[in-house]
Every structure is written in structure tokens, then in C-alpha cells.
Design brief:
This is Transcriptional regulator, LysR family. Keywords: Coiled coil, DNA-binding, Transcription, Transcription regulation. It comes from Lysobacter enzymogenes. Pfam families: HTH_1, LysR_substrate. Residues 74-101 form a coiled coil. The chain is α/β, with parallel strands linked by helices and 312 residues long. It folds into three domains: 16-94, Winged helix-like DNA-binding domain superfamily/Winged helix DNA-binding domain (Arc Repressor Mutant, subunit A); 104-172 and 270-302, D-Maltodextrin-Binding Protein, domain 2 (3-Layer(aba) Sandwich); 175-268, D-Maltodextrin-Binding Protein, domain 2, CATH 3.40.190.10. The protein is built from ten helices and twelve strands. The strands form four sheets. A five-stranded mixed β-sheet has the order 4-3-5-12-6, with helices on one face. It has a three-stranded antiparallel β-sheet with strand order 10-7-11, with helices on both faces. Helix 1 (16-28) crosses helix 4. It is globular, with a radius of gyration of 24 Å. 32% of the residues are buried. Residues 1-10 have low confidence and may be disordered.
Length: 312
């Protein structure tokens, strides 16, 4: 039956792409957030959701200043979209798990700081050993969802792996306090003796990490003169002389413009985990990259644990 002969009370069928838009809006709670998730523009999402509502003849979202809230009809559509997505992802995982060829693309989710000094040399060696495999890295501070097949592997600091994922703890990441080389401290001053100095703080989506929590417990956050949601940004600001900061030792020890203050602080440490979905353990390209990461991180233990760097 074509569109002209469809009865007026029969809604037009939605495509999976329509459901993708509804799911993105439901998860983000706003058009801007949905646009970022989908990789499209704000007007595209706006036009699409309006077209879907017209096609169905029902309102799916309530519009408000603070965002888009699903109506009961919208909640039902979003739930259906989530079920469709999970079935598609499960099928893709099963099919990918049967692929024994060491070729193709592996999507690796990680955090931005690990792309400095840690991952590039490992990936360069991996490329030479496996020229048929392309590694696609997504680096941010948000967890990519392995269950929804947004990534094949994840390498990131954190705790025990979420339910349904396979995880292996590869290393303990040490962190410490660092001062600009030009900033002189009293002889013997350690991380506990730095009240009264200017501080640079992890902020935004880094406000929950162990380093930020330690700064708050020490009440050093009261002397904050700069904050950023990037550890690389904090490092550069400290090098420029803005103040003291906290960094993973693999970021701070190799920077000539910084000096470590005392030993690494255990309370600021974090475990480095390699996560993957169990359905992909038989996929040769994923298995190969996972093994390369495990071996490479093992060789970097002195840098990651802070044992290789000088203490100022």
C-alpha cells in the first residue's frame, strides 16, 4: 500500500534511522546533546523529530528550556528503540566474534592522557606486526558503551568492570603533585605541606577522579586559580608557571618544566583496566590488539608506577 492509499488513522512506519534519533534525544535530553551523539547538526535533529511526530500523529517530547522530556508515548518509542539497538548490537557482536582474520578495524576507547607517551609507541609496534589491522581510537573522558558496540576494546582508569564485560587490570597508575620548575618550595616540603600556594584543579568531567577528590580532602581547592577538564591542559598551565597541580606520573615525570613534589600519593592512584565484550574474544583482530596492549603496558610499569621519574 502506498502513501496515497494509506488510511488517515494508520501511522507511517518508522525506519531504524528514525528510532536512532529518538533514542539519542532520549539519552541526551536535548537536541544539542543528541546532535553530538549522532554527528549531525542541531537543525537536522530538530527537523527530524518534528517529522517523526507528524508522521505518527503524536507528541513524543515535551519542549522546555532545560531540554526535551519524553511524553509517555515518547518513553514507549525510546524503549522500543533501545531494544532494537541491543538486538542489532548483539547480532554484530556474534558475527564479529566468528571472524578469525587478523584484518579489519578495531575500535579502541581510551582517555586523552594515555595518548601521550603511552599508547602511540604501542600502536606503532602493533601496526608493524599487523599491517592488515586499522586501529580507530576514540579518546575522551566518557565511557564508550561496549555493550552497544560503540567500541571493541576500552583502556581506561577505573574500578571493577561493569556487568557483562570482561576486564583485566593491567597496571596501577601512580599520581603525584608537581610544581613549576621556577617555583621554589621549602626544603623537605611534601604533598601534605602545600597550603597557601596557588593550585590548578581537574574540573568538569574530571571532578570525580581520585586526584580531584584528594585535592578537596586537602582543601587545596580553596586556592584554585585555574581549572580544566584536561590533564594535558593542567600540565601545560603548570609548565607556564600558574601554580601547583596533580598529574599521573607518566605525564609529569617526563616534562622538563615540572618537578615532582615528593613521592606519588597512593590516594590519587588508579587502576588501569582493559575491557571488552565477551562476544569479541574470538575475533582475531581484537584479540591481537588486546594482547599487544597487555604486553606493552607491562613493559611500561616503571613509568606508570612513578618509579622511573625523579623526585623534586
Amino acid at each position: 500500500m502506498n502513501n496515497r492509499s494509506r488510511p488517515a488513522d494508520v501511522a507511517a512506519p518508522l525506519s531504524w534511522d528514525d528510532y536512532r534519533f529518538l533514542l539519542a534525544i532520549g539519552r541526551a535530553g536535548s537536541l544539542n546533546g543528541a546532535a553530538k551523539r549522532l554527528g549531525v547538526s542541531h537543525p537536522t535533529v530538530f527537523r527530524r523529530v518534528n517529522a517523526i511526530e507528524r508522521a505518527l500523529g503524536v507528541r513524543l517530547f515535551e519542549r522546555a528550556r532545560e531540554g526535551y522530556a519524553p511524553t509517555p508515548n515518547g518513553e514507549e518509542a525510546i524503549a522500543a528503540a533501545a531494544q532494537i539497538e541491543e538486538r542489532i548490537a548483539a547480532t554484530e557482536r556474534r558475527l564479529a566474534g566468528l571472524d578469525a582474520r587478523p584484518t579489519g578495524t578495531v575500535r579502541l576507547a581510551t582517555v586523552e592522557p594515555l595518548l601521550h607517551r603511552v599508547l602511540p609507541p604501542l600502536l606503532a609496534r602493533f601496526r608493524r606486526a599487523h599491517p592488515g589491522i586499522v586501529v580507530q581510537v576514540t579518546a575522551d573522558n566518557h565511557t564508550q558503551d561496549l555493550s552497544r558496540h560503540e567500541a571493541d576494546l576500552a583502556l581506561r582508569p577505573g574500578g571493577e568492570p561493569p556487568e557483562g564485560l570482561v576486564g583485566r587490570k593491567l597496571a596501577r597508575l601512580a599520581s603525584a603533585v608537581y610544581r613549576p620548575r621556577a617555583l621554589r618550595l621549602p626544603r623537605g616540603a611534601g604533598p601534605q605541606d602545600l597550603d597557601g600556594y596557588d593550585w590548578l584543579l581537574p574540573a568538569g568531567n574530571l571532578a570525580h577522579i581520585a586526584m580531584a577528590q584528594w585535592l578537596r580532602r586537602m582543601q587545596y581547592d580553596r586556592r584554585a586559580v585555574f581549572s580544566a577538564n584536561s590533564l594535558l591542559g593542567l600540565r601545560e598551565a603548570a609548565v607556564a608557571g600558574l601554580g601547583l597541580t596533580v598529574l599521573p606520573c607518566y605525564l609529569g615525570d617526563g616534562e622538563r618544566g615540572l618537578v615532582r613534589v615528593g613521592d606519588p600519593v597512593e590516594a590519587m592512584g588508579a587502576d588501569l583496566w582493559l575491557l571488552q565484550h565477551p562476544d569479541l574474544r574470538r575475533t582475531e583482530r581484537v584479540r591481537a590488539l588486546a594482547e599487544a596492549l597487555r604486553e606493552g603496558v607491562r613493559a611500561l610499569q616503571p613509568d606508570l608506577s612513578g618509579r622511573a621519574g625523579p623526585i623534586g
